[in-house]
Amino acid sequence: MPRTRRPLAEALAGPGGRTVLLDGGLSNQLADQGCDLSGGLWTGRVLTERPEQVTAAHTAYARAGAEVLITASYQVGYAALARRGHGPEHTTALLRRSVRLADAAARAAEHPVWVAASVGPYGAVLADGSEYRGRYGLSVRELADFHRPRIAALLAAGPDVLALETVPDTTEAEALLTVLTETGARAWLSYTVEGGRTRAGQPLAEAFALAAGSPQVIAVGVNCCDPAEVLPALEAAAAVTAAPLLAYPNDGSVWEPATATWRAPATPVPWPVTAWQRAGARLIGGCCRIGPDRIAELAATLG
């Protein structure tokens, strides 16, 4: 079926307060499909070597009820691929491919689906876990220069929106918002948080306030964090912005960079989804270790 062209921002701003369902973690679904995610490119490796598996993963989430598919571009960067002997044309092609694959799954879905092009943080491309620390020692200008060509390549493929996601600090958020202003594109801005602050330790009110004045930011919130962090973060965001809010946490696991593995919580962490909605969340889904089964449960809950 033709993919919906109604702007996601319009759906979020519409009457009735309906919550739009995001997808879940792409990496865990690809792993469950038997894909090899080893090496620094992570899901980008599958995007390069087995693109049909990326489409299959997107399709699994669409069948589970997801209304937004996030592309496999999170860890694709020009410098990272250059270190592996690939020129900029190859990287541009991969970024555009990520949008096309999600678009194919969206068009095949039995309900309208939007495509969000993932713009992962600088630390993700380093593949050393530094997206969970931030403070890379780079200026706003340097980070903007890093993100600018990635965003341009993604936008050229025609996604519905950009997902500026897993942002660990305000410096990188400022850089991303700078490039967003240059392009005129629409995006959501999502921080990864811990202890009621950004991963770099900045107050959340300060972090969310950066986006409050941007007409291009359609939603703000958090992702790839412990579910227990979500509600306080949403409340902090609601205090400084009238934008719709979003939440797509992981399952409460902690990433261990030394072993490149997740350390799961001793007991499952509750997801108080109704409380998130009351706080203003209009986009809800899952991040790492949240698969199609959990998204299907959310679809039934959100109704």
Question: Describe it for me?
Answer:
This protein is α/β, with parallel strands linked by helices and 303 residues long. The protein is 43% helix and 16% strand. It contains 13 helices and twelve strands. It has helices at 8-13, 26-32, 43-49, 51-64, 78-82, 88-108, 122-126, 140-156, 170-183, 204-212, 230-238, 273-278, 292-302; strands spanning 20-21, 68-70, 114-119, 161-167, 187-191, 193-194, 197-198, 217-223, 245-248, 254-256, 261-263, 281-284. The strands form three sheets. An eight-stranded parallel sheet has the order 1-12-9-8-5-4-3-2. A two-stranded antiparallel ribbon has the order 6-7. A two-stranded antiparallel sheet has the order 10-11. The longest helix has 21 residues, at 88-108. The two termini are 22 Å apart. The model has no long low-confidence stretch (mean pLDDT 92).
